[in-house]
Amino acid sequence: MVSFIEMRNNFKTIVTLSNLGASIYDIKTVDKDNKIESILYTTKKEEDFITERSYLGKTIGRTGGRISNSKFKLNDIEYVIKSNDPNGLHGGIDGVSYKEFEYHKVEAEDYFEVKFSYYSNDLESGYPGDLIINVIYRLYKNINKLTVTYDAIASKDTLVNLSNHSYFNLSGNSKDNILNHELYINASKMERIEKLIPQEIVDCKEIYSFKNMHKIGDYINDKEIIDNTNGYDYPYIFDDDTIDKFNVLLKDDNSKRILKIKTSYPTVVVYTCNYTEDKIMNNGEVMTPYYAVCLECMYHPNTINSDFLKEKKDILLKNKKYKETIEYYFGVEND
């Protein structure tokens, strides 16, 4: 049965999780006037969150992003991902995003925690090995911070690249699009995309770079971007990939809300809700392009099939521990 679990902290932040895909259904924070509103572009109704297929707030995997031609070779064995997308999107049609996880809630002195667990069978969606996945959310009481930690262990060598696919909109209840949101990414390099698959590492030229913070809408309608991906949909490689660094900063000048991100992952995929479906969202309107930005921290997507990436971090060896973290910090400018 699909469940929804709510956590609140001393900053009036409200986080609603779901065991469907170990996901974030909603996050509400205060704005400059202390008004509590949603900072996610999410469905108006919980039942639509269950049936949507845009990965709203879901854990994506076993591998986030696309796997070229929906297949990969590991230990000289070729595996085919079961997918409606020609490039094995977000773990394929039987990925973890819409699985019902078991969960356990804990309240400690400094935080609330929900631990989601799922057992993925050998060859589920085409991936080798039984895989135990834990997704742990912590909302801190006296720091306005939500952390998500992924840990996993497999019975065979396999691929794992887990992330969260929340659609952020800091305007409050998605009252406006995100084109005037300002975005900073500590990245001088990115992956060039061709037919939605990374081809090589390149320097970020002006229309792609967020190294100098600017509005998402400044270059989004550039012909090169529109013709290629219909908006931003690119992996950015952090200049400093230590978890101590705020590598991503999102800001809305009207509400003055700020979102900062630290992560142990080396890249973030920026996706600006370029493609939509017929769902009523929390602003009462049908899902619309550019009403959210996804900030998917992960390993380089499609590493297994990329000749230009020598370090294959997405390969999880048998009985080795997978553990990565994303930290979301909420605030108001000048608070």
Offer a few descriptive terms.
single chain; 335 residues; mainly beta; Beta-galactosidase, Chain A, domain 5; 9-stranded antiparallel β-sheet; 6-stranded antiparallel β-sheet; 25 strands; globular
What does this protein look like?
The chain contains two helices and 25 strands. Strands 8-9-10-11-25-21-20-15-18 form a nine-stranded antiparallel sheet, with no helix packed on it. The protein has a six-stranded antiparallel sheet with strand order 14-23-22-19-16-17, with no helix packed on it. The chain has a single domain (4-332), classed as Beta-galactosidase, Chain A, domain 5. With 335 residues, the protein is mainly β. Strand 2 (14-18) and strand 3 (23-30) form a beta hairpin. It is 4% helix and 39% strand. It has helices at residues 46-51, 223-229; strands spanning 4-8, 14-18, 23-30, 36-38, 59-60, 71-74, 77-80, 102-107, 111-120, 131-140, 145-154, 158-159, 163-164, 167-168, 182-185, 189-194, 197-203, 214-215, 233-237, 248-251, 257-263, 267-271, 293-298, 315-316, 322-332.
Question: Could you write a compact summary of the structure shown?
Answer:
The protein has 2 helices and 25 strands.
CATH architecture call: Distorted Sandwich
Count of folded domains: 1
Shape: globular
Please give the radius of gyration in angstroms. 19 Å
* Uncertain spans: none
Strand tally: 25
Distance between the termini: 40 Å
Summarize the helix and strand pattern as letters.
EEEEHEEEEEEEEEEEEEEHEEEEEEE
Provide the spatial order of strands within the biggest beta sheet: 8-9-10-11-25-21-20-15-18
Round the mean pLDDT to the nearest integer and report it. 97
**Named CATH topology:** Beta-galactosidase, Chain A, domain 5
Number of helices: 2
User: What is the percentage of strand-forming residues?
Assistant: 35-45%
| Class per helix and strand makeup | mainly beta
What top-tier CATH class fits best? Answer: Mainly Beta
